[in-house]
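Re: the 287-residue chain
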Amino acid sequence: LQTGAERALWGGLSRDLQEAWSVYGVYPGFAWTPDSQQLVVWAQGKLWRVQARSGHAAEIPFHVRHTREVREALRVPQTVAPDSFDVKQLRHVQVSPDGRFTVYSALGHLWQRSLERDDAPARRLSTQTEHFEFQPSISRDGKRVAYISWNDREMGRVRVRDVASGRETVVTPEPGKYLTPRFSPDGRHVVYVKSRGSVLLPPWHGLETGVYIAAADGSGSPRRISRDGDTPQFGARNDEVFITRSTMVSEVEWRRALWRLRPNGGEETEVARGEFIGEYSVSPDGR
């Protein structure tokens, strides 16, 4: 109490599952003995007496007399890896501007499906198996799809794929963690977010994060237009980009605002703000 120093007393505790439902209780679920010299604690399915100074733990033996009825377990055969199955979750669903088809991510790859008839089958947008495919975005003319590829060894890239020919262009020259690509109205540029690592992803190639703009044909070098923000998008103009910025106004409350900025620099304008906002979407006519 004088120095504030802490030390581990005993390392034999069990996981208390407080990140789930705490079905086995949580720590500190212990009690001091009346002389304040020992702790009584549960761990490893037993009760323990732990010396407060030395950390020595001794099992407290106990016996429970009880009667239980044991029934035969209900077991249902399961096919672990069937040849085919119904996909239950479609991610990042995008509909072409003319309403003729949709592109989405499922099972780690992009799929295209016609919307002109109900029985149209879905088909993969590509046949490659080198990387996963996420977050598609369709150009205004419906001829190209920008998306994020991911490979655990080579990390992520922003790619543009021609729907008819299948020809692909890598927009980002360096690997990284990229998110939410969107085409400009004229299809000449793509905006996206470069992010850093997380608890699941390493920090490599995570410097100079922010919102970037790059040529859709892969020429030139991507250029950062904002150090912060997410979900960049265009309205009707090629020289205006909308991004979303988040501000923490209390311990449990976030405010998300939509900002309009010019890729070539200049004044930034806050367009809308609100609490508990999940996502903004700007109409194609920019109104």
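Residues 261 and 267 are 7 Å apart (CA to CA).
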